Chorismate synthase
Amino acid sequence: MSGNTFGKSFTVTTFGESHGPALGCIVDGCPPGLELTVEDLQGELDRRRPGTSRHTTQRQEPDTVRILSGVFEGKTTGTPIGLLIENVDQKSKDYGKIKDQFRPAHADYTYQHKYGIRDHRGGGRSSARETAMRVAAGAIARKYLQERLGIRIFGGLTALGPIEIQPVDWEAAKTNPFFCPDPSRLQELEDYMDALRKEGNSIGARITVIAEGVPPGLGEPVFDRLDADLAHGLMSINAVKGVEIGAGFASVGQKGTEHRDEMSPEGFRSNQAGGVLGGISSGQPIIASIALKPTSSLRLPGQSIDKEGNACEVITTGRHDPCVGIRATPIAEAMLALVLMDHWLRHRAQNADVVPGTPDIGRGSTWRP
Amino acid sequence: MSGNTFGKSFTVTTFGESHGPALGCIVDGCPPGLELTVEDLQGELDRRRPGTSRHTTQRQEPDTVRILSGVFEGKTTGTPIGLLIENVDQKSKDYGKIKDQFRPAHADYTYQHKYGIRDHRGGGRSSARETAMRVAAGAIARKYLQERLGIRIFGGLTALGPIEIQPVDWEAAKTNPFFCPDPSRLQELEDYMDALRKEGNSIGARITVIAEGVPPGLGEPVFDRLDADLAHGLMSINAVKGVEIGAGFASVGQKGTEHRDEMSPEGFRSNQAGGVLGGISSGQPIIASIALKPTSSLRLPGQSIDKEGNACEVITTGRHDPCVGIRATPIAEAMLALVLMDHWLRHRAQNADVVPGTPDIGRGSTWRP
Amino acid sequence: MSGNTFGKSFTVTTFGESHGPALGCIVDGCPPGLELTVEDLQGELDRRRPGTSRHTTQRQEPDTVRILSGVFEGKTTGTPIGLLIENVDQKSKDYGKIKDQFRPAHADYTYQHKYGIRDHRGGGRSSARETAMRVAAGAIARKYLQERLGIRIFGGLTALGPIEIQPVDWEAAKTNPFFCPDPSRLQELEDYMDALRKEGNSIGARITVIAEGVPPGLGEPVFDRLDADLAHGLMSINAVKGVEIGAGFASVGQKGTEHRDEMSPEGFRSNQAGGVLGGISSGQPIIASIALKPTSSLRLPGQSIDKEGNACEVITTGRHDPCVGIRATPIAEAMLALVLMDHWLRHRAQNADVVPGTPDIGRGSTWRP
Amino acid sequence: MSGNTFGKSFTVTTFGESHGPALGCIVDGCPPGLELTVEDLQGELDRRRPGTSRHTTQRQEPDTVRILSGVFEGKTTGTPIGLLIENVDQKSKDYGKIKDQFRPAHADYTYQHKYGIRDHRGGGRSSARETAMRVAAGAIARKYLQERLGIRIFGGLTALGPIEIQPVDWEAAKTNPFFCPDPSRLQELEDYMDALRKEGNSIGARITVIAEGVPPGLGEPVFDRLDADLAHGLMSINAVKGVEIGAGFASVGQKGTEHRDEMSPEGFRSNQAGGVLGGISSGQPIIASIALKPTSSLRLPGQSIDKEGNACEVITTGRHDPCVGIRATPIAEAMLALVLMDHWLRHRAQNADVVPGTPDIGRGSTWRP
């Protein structure tokens, strides 16, 4: 009932508030024997960490993670893996007004309705800070998928407000602070963000994530299709308002002859499906895109109400990302890794007996723009 | 692990293949005391039923449903509700070729990989025929939500291929075979479909569904947010490739000042959020849209491979919907009902003690285009 | 939330009331490729069926089961298996009094409290008739376990009231109506039951079930230990009031040197543990015993209250088992099969990568009294 | 799949090894608004803590717990509660032999089979040290049940080896180190334990736990009956080999007229059922007993094998409880609290609409020996 667990076979349960003492999670179901060190997790956490450029929040959190269980002599043991990150930069500022006001488009109003009480400091549980634990847990999944199955997960920014980006170099996306897969567009992005910050406004973004090398067969129809669970995972990221698989909303305007990915002994001829047919991976790259709304924390005043229902004006000062999409790539990659890992375990639970023999035409294929 | 159950508190588990003896489901967790008759279910099933116009498959299935348990003297008893629909129009045609070929963009290839065996007749388990049980189960949820909470669920076609439809009359969507919320566009739709059928091709569509009167507080952060579970449910419908909540992908291009729904004592000033903030319902209408791909069953030949990996050409004759989106509205409405019902029960499990007191500014609001 | 599903990887969801139109279940997660016919299920159902001797209820139910999905050309396909048994012998007798009275030690009172409504006919959902579906589903698990893993499941009556039975021949338990593993005691059992029936009373019983050939490694500590899930499954059978694994309550009086099963290269030297160490199967036979209370449906009058809280006297006429334990062996075996099957799938989900190498000293061992 | 979560609505997920850096858990689903401090948890932890008498292990662990999330300004917020206990007394002794040997009746052998790797230090994950987190989590449930529903949970030792104890004073059980509900037997217990320790042996025990004031209606038939979930929870405690509800195994020898609890307007006339009818609480006290096996860690040598399958002799030195049953009362109480809490939430999810009206004759009743 409680909604803080993701996955069924490979599960991640998180806890922690933005300004509480710590964030943590328990990863349960990890296969034993995987080599795992703190560095494996820290590397991914550092990618998500704020403060790496002037375009993200200036909150300083080292996000130093500890592994508290489930690893012995450098290897996973099959028992639950406890992870912990202590919060260090919770500013003891005056939250007086925010405490009694509902910031527009934030979760203040709905948490108050649901629970009758809320930790208002920095958004409490609804803060995107919670996603640090997803990234840490996702790093475990990612390592397993890479080492045991050869699955490569990557992604980047494919739109920032009005700026559409055609991916040309996914490797480049790993080395710039925008996670932009076209390095020629970086100056444009910087300029846009500088103007936006001056304006005091925020902007939406689109992120695309990809998994190459996924074996065919992952996904549990009819409800827990791979794409359905991926939609669940991706939509559960803070600020996400839309999820697409493959052609996504473009398929509304497609004819059957355009959309259907024809097959040949040499492979699929296209990948409109985004690597999923009937809810099951086809062996082609899994491709998913998400829409992230603009941050609602603005220094431009917004109309709202307080807890008593009186009108008020809200101005959000403090440290905020003007485009939450910029740091979202590692989070979306982590959710993709968690979904694939969970489905790999679920798949082999039922189907480990299946004798291979069906031609595997999709596996070698790589992402095509 | 097994993926044929939807929901956690109000669960639906379905079974059945397109050409097997029957389809069925078990609805578990329904509150006792709800008046329920077969007619309540049959009405919704008839909306989804094929053969109501020349624009859908000509397979004739009365979809007559039986209630086998969980209802006593006209009321639900709190015990599981077993539902059954016998298949009557499975044509005993020759499936020879289809048996050994993989139809492009169908689940043939992936089911074969996953299970090593598949019921090829009419797509077997991967057929959209399975959604009949979702509609039947959804009708129970819908009745409860309407009677006990005053929630109204409706929806319709908002795009068919290149034809964009601005909803002007959701009531009208209930009375035309396209579920089109603008009756002035019906002739255009008919003409488009007639031309398409002549061409032998198929087309994608977009469906929008709405729930009005949803109380604030539904949704379980951080993973089982209302929008995340809705994305899960909607993406699990056959042919769906994208899901949007509220502004959806339009939010990529929005600034914070555009997207954030300001609040006043009289209500929210807009509904870009689609009724969900921080994964919890705000009391505003829930608005979700889905993209449905064009049917892959075409009489225009497509290139593929057979089970041995040899190239082959596939032509799909038989009875198929040229636009699966046309009949998808009742299915999407059913999934929305199931998600809301499940979350209502989950919410009150944890929060039945909460003393109301927060101003409820969203509840009375109705859908605005 | 809803409690009508058993298992996590291999799940069984049942529905149906004693006097409703039908009983049914959905088995989800069955591996594909298992040969399965109606006869496989019917054989087990016939063992549980009433009316096979004068010592059980005289209700005549053929319990004819239909497979509605999930099996194609004689093999499971990996999709959910729908099973259905129509009720045929619901007597349309006058339930007038029972309708408004709470029979002592029955679920009438608690169902009324919980749901505010109940199907009083024959106990409704609380009738042991529901266990027919467990036996049907268990037969699928059993077949898989036998064919793929060589696991043999059997059991029988080890006490009927004051009559203690030392198992000497488990094969014999399969061929007598008491499921008694010592054929020399049959006359004694018959005489006891004849006297009891004349008296109008009922009696408790103990059943012991065993699984031989279980591989080491099944069970998921710390909460879903094999013995804990077995206790869950066995305690969920109607009338069960106690569950023991191995030495069970005898271990209260044992010293460590008596209880600990010493090991040698040739095998374990005893099996006080009942085949489970730390919640994980050891390879030795799994041994579990259950206590079943005497039937509460008696023609000897009992004091009770009616729905208005008035005192009343209840006499239960009609058709009832004077010792529900007699027919419980196939049910307990079915639950054991379901638990093992579920844990086999769960185990291999996480641990399919584990390289064998640990000496397997328990596997070949057989049950020792 | 993973087995480290207990409960469905009120869930507890634990992590941690005996000699790792820390133990922890996440409690998810706790209703908001409950006053909660570290002291509420610490009090229960201190009851379970070793070293309070010479009859338990001499390992010194303060078991100081921290609340890391889910509590704000002294009240629960409805978000997940993270708890942490750092291990402080892990002796860095030489584990050389134990590392390669399988201690008889321990989980060494089965963990090695299951995972192919194990943390051998102090039993790793299979150590009863894990139960500290159950006690901490149970304290939260207990507080809610007591404050909101008036449920009182208590228990004690009802047998230690050959010494049978008739409970005469449950309050006394709270104040002596044996949790013995008959203070006149304390000297006898001390003497028995002193002799046992001298002998180098260990002994089994029986614990009985009771919940008074439980409202009627808790339990989810047919599989998640209250007694079935209680059996699951209790059997998942280390060393437990049997679970009884009410009359338990004594019901094997009972006649129907003895076992059935007759009812009158003034109340139930007995409580053979142990407060559960048809898997649902009746309002009478819930009574459950468990059998705990003798500790297997003995300084008396035992025969075993090593990882290569060679015969060896095992002597367990170190710090161990000669009777694990002595400290088991707080653990069993915690599991009872967790089960009741979970079922309270599950019950009201489905049945919050039910209009009361059925006479409640059991609620006021207290435990009777």
